[in-house]
Amino acid sequence: xxxxxxxxxxxxxxxxxxxxxxxxxxxxxxxxxxxxxxxxxxxxxxxxxxxxxxxxxxxxxxxxxxxxxxxxxxxxxxxxxxxxxxxxxxxxxxxxxxxxxxxxxxxxxxxxxxxxxxxxxxxxxxxxxxxxxxxxxxxxxxxxxxxxxxxxxxxxxxxxxxxxxxxxxxxxxxxxxxxxxxxxxxxxxxxxxxxxxxxxxxxxxxxxxxxxxxx
Length: 215
Hints:
4-stranded mixed beta sheet; RNA Polymerase Alpha Subunit, Chain A, domain 2; CATH 2.40.240.10; 13 strands; 38% strand
């Protein structure tokens, strides 16, 4: 599990588009913190600090401790939604979900392939990754930074599936276990070469038949 990140926040009084616009002009981003057994808290965070933080973490699965000015202790959260300006790319609004110790949460975990497949190294094949993130359910203390799957033994034509991913106890993958994660495809052009060879044989046979008819 990765270390928690921390983000300072302030409570905000005003609501609506006008208040949000003023916050952004002041270099802050409107945000909401919500969760089980609590009223939503309307907050703002520093735009520059937040953008720097989000560039340095995996936003989908890193616990962010939201430290609200004037409150005792920070709230452990997951970033549930990030809204950005369509062409400027600047942050517009952020939703934080408060998490609780021992209470399972749903989130997306990155999947990384490790090694060079035998079918690529010696067979000229191409490794194709179909799944890059996996939906999981687990308690906060079990949240993995990422999944790793060793592909070194894969030959051309072979594949790995969700069921092949090693899991720690307490982590549940929320998708089909027989779903294909990656495969080693045959070398490009291999099928075309076989087709050309077949075409030559067929052409020769056709010529023989044509000659027989002429006789």
